[in-house]
Amino acid sequence: MRLICMLILCISPLLWAKKPTAAPLPSPLTPAVFSHQQALLLSESSPFYRLDVPVTVYQFSQRADLGDLRVFNAAGELVPYALETRATPQQNQLSQTALRFFPYGSKASIEQRDVSIQIRSDGQLNAQSHTSSKQQESSYIVDGSQIKGQLESLILGWQEANYQGQIRLAASDDLQQWQPLGSTEIIQLDYQGQTLSQPKVELGGIRAKYLRISSDTPLTLKEVRLQSSIAKSAPAKRAWLAPVTAQLKQAGEYQFDLGVHAPIDRLELSLPQLNTVVQASLASRANPAEPWQSEQSTMLYRLQGKISEAHSPALVISPNQHRYWRLSVNQSSGGLGQGLPQLKAGWTPQQIAFVARGQAPFVLAFGNARVSSAALNTEDLIIGNVVASATAGALLNKTTTPASTIASEPSSVRTYGLWAALVLAVGVLGTMAWKLAISPNFSSEKE
Predict the structure, then answer these.
(1) Where does residue 339 fall: left (phi above 0), alpha (psi -120 to 50 degrees), or beta otherwise?
(2) Pairing between β-strand 387-397 and β-strand 36-42 as defined by DSSP bridges
(3) How far is CA 314 from CA 183, 220, 231, 241, 299, in A?
(4) Exposure pattern of 299-331 as b/e (b: 16+ CB <10 Å)?
């Protein structure tokens, strides 16, 4: 009985200790309550400014909706702002057209080749062969003169089986002046009963009447189809995170921590070894406590071409803000071998618009989970069309612990005092229990 009473006396101060509460946020808010501040650089004099949300915000903001963003002027005063989520660029309906194409030799000018090509009055091409010999061609001119709108991509069909080659592209409006468009790899391989095919060549929305396709590897085209669209709006600029190396959790399972919660909609996977072809699937989650959510399955490859490497294209996914990603690789064909894959994530940044009230420099502050959004609608904020550009400069401060966490925890002195009292109480009780257990009176009472 004495032991129980002593226990109650020792722990009662701890039970009745007042639970610490978070310090109230100041009103109005000050930059000091945020864990991170970033300078804003202004391009010119204007009442309104707009900038892309910098990657640091996606990294250190404590709210998924970026509600803890604020803009301050040089006096530390809040200025009105709007957080704009860019509408997904309108997916223009693509039209697909089979184009005429003409083989030509490898000499310097069209007039010297085995095929002469003339432009008709309507812009279409006429070709006439000067030789009856049949040979494998590796260069073609594609007639896109009748296409209205932007040239988005070519889809090629060819005769050769198990073909892998680098092709070079150029564009022209008169067959005299050619603008190089770069090079890309096209592939068609049979692999374990499956066909690995990459016949699509991205053109990026260019405008041109004629295209030139050249290859150092003999290529016999059967068809050329063009995907085109009518321009409606300029594509939004995309932000990319530096590649993140995976951690191997178990055979065939690789996990990535991107360190940000941005609205990711593009993923590029880099495989560690050349000449790798694997079937894989991706999953993601917002934090380690949540279950994995499946995203999609795909065929990944990294192959050595005659000139350069060929990689599987970027994966297009529905935007999500998940930070953690998992790559599961089918091990039946050998997996990835040695080394670790890398994941590169891309997204279309949101934008911040603000009123330049007061004196510069202006500061973007973020990083406090207890701060809720105060963003206005863009229509209510910006009057007129005079909006200048701003950019995010260097971080002005970095803290390892978010301001929200610091504000909600008890002071260090009080915390250590409570723990010391608890350890002391446990020690006293333990000593008393040991003395009672070995005392003769305690033994006789038991008997």
Answers:
(1) left
(2) antiparallel
(3) 17, 28, 23, 14, 11
(4) bbbbbeeeeeebbbeeeebeebbbbbbbbbbee
pLDDT tens digit sequence for 243-295: 999 999 999 999 999 999 999 999 999 999 999 999 999 999 999 999 999 88
Inside any domain, residue 272: yes
User: Are residues 127 and 180 located together in one domain of the fold?
Assistant: yes
d(CA 224, CA 221): 8
| Domain span including residue 382 | 36-84+350-398
Does residue 29 belong to any structural domain of this protein?
Answer: no
Domain count, the chain: 4
CA distances from residue 329 to 219, 254, 268, 326, 340 in whole angstroms, order as listed: 33, 8, 15, 10, 12
**Are residues 61 and 168 located together in one domain of the fold?**
no
Q: Which two tokens stand for residue 415?
A: 């915390």
**pLDDT at residue 109 greater than cutoff 60:** no
Does a structural domain hold residue 31? no
Residue 89 lies in a domain: no
* Percent of all residues in the chain with a pLDDT value above 90, rounded to a whole number: 50
Query: Domain check: are 120 and 223 in the same one?
Result: yes
- Nearest Cα neighbor of 326 from 243, 264, 269, 242 is 269
